[in-house]
Design goal:
Layout: E1 10-14, E2 18-23, H1 39-46, E3 53-54, E4 63-69, H2 72-83, E5 88-95, E6 103-106, E7 110-113, E8 116-122, E9 133-141, E10 144-151, H3 158-165, E11 181-183, E12 189-191, E13 197-205, E14 212-216, H4 221-229
Parallel strand pairs: 4-13
Antiparallel strand pairs: 1-2, 2-4, 3-4, 5-10, 5-13, 6-9, 7-8, 9-10, 11-12, 13-14
Length: 241
């Protein structure tokens, strides 16, 4: 039996300028109203003296690290680091498809789906914005593959859309064509109850600029369980470099 998902976010790092939290799946980063559950609301309730600003957003089904700036100056520095390519994010994703190449880059632009404003498409269209994702196969399992995904831009649903366009949608990502179930040769069924995607590492320059803040968050138990059921080794879920 798989372990239960954590019901609360976990604070990974806090200083006078930054708060970094590991978000569990099922909790959106933001919500339309202040009364609906969200990571922003959890942070505000947990740290009422802070004025946090989420510098990135994870989809509700996606788990992992979210960085909050606690001052305008800190937010500006992170924006500058992102523009300079010095704000690095590493995600781990599971697909039950086999990539044509073990490493590469996806550079399709991201646009709004003309049939559904909540969806995105990889290609030209309304609201089109340039997007770039580097990927590599981190490990192979008997019935799936573990991807390392490094977004160079931060578009809505970027990793999910790029992976789907490349022919390897993320396991559990039904919105973009990913399977939610995998039947193994012996008849066992592996089920993904959410998108198998986790932000495992963030790296950015320190306030002084002379050092690097390097933070990691272990893969959530449900995703680790799915990877194990597909025949993957636990060691592959480490952030690596």
């Amino acid at each position: 039996m798989r372990e239960r998902e954590p019901v609360e976010p976990e604070v990974i790092h806090r200083d006078e300028e930054l708060l970094v939290v590991s978000k569990p799946p099922g909790l959106p980063t933001t919500a339309p109203t202040t009364t609906e559950p969200s990571l922003v609301r959890w942070v505000s309730n947990s740290f009422p003296v802070l004025r946090p600003h989420a510098t990135s957003r994870l989809d509700a089904q996606v788990s992992g690290l979210v960085t909050f700036a606690l001052s305008r100056e800190a937010n500006r520095r992170l924006l500058d680091a992102r523009r300079a390519g010095a704000y690095e994010r590493l995600y781990l994703g599971i697909t039950v498809h086999t990539p044509e190449a073990s490493t590469g880059e996806w550079s399709w632009p991201i646009a709004i789906d003309p049939h559904d404003r909540k969806r995105r498409v990889a290609g030209t269209g309304r609201g089109e914005r340039a997007a770039r994702t580097r990927y590599e196969v981190a490990a192979k399992a008997a019935h799936g593959n573990l991807l390392r995904l490094r977004p160079a831009t931060g578009r809505t649903h970027q990793l999910r859309v790029h992976a789907a366009r490349a022919g390897m949608p993320l396991f559990g990502d039904r919105l973009y064509g990913g399977e939610a179930r995998k039947v193994l040769p012996d008849g066992r069924v592996v089920t993904a109850r959410r998108v198998m995607l986790h932000c495992v590492r963030v790296r950015f320059p320190s306030k002084s600029g002379t050092d690097v803040v390097d933070l990691t968050a272990p893969v959530i138990a449900d995703m680790a369980g799915v990877w194990a059921e597909l025949g993957g080794a636990d060691a592959a879920l480490q952030p690596g470099r």
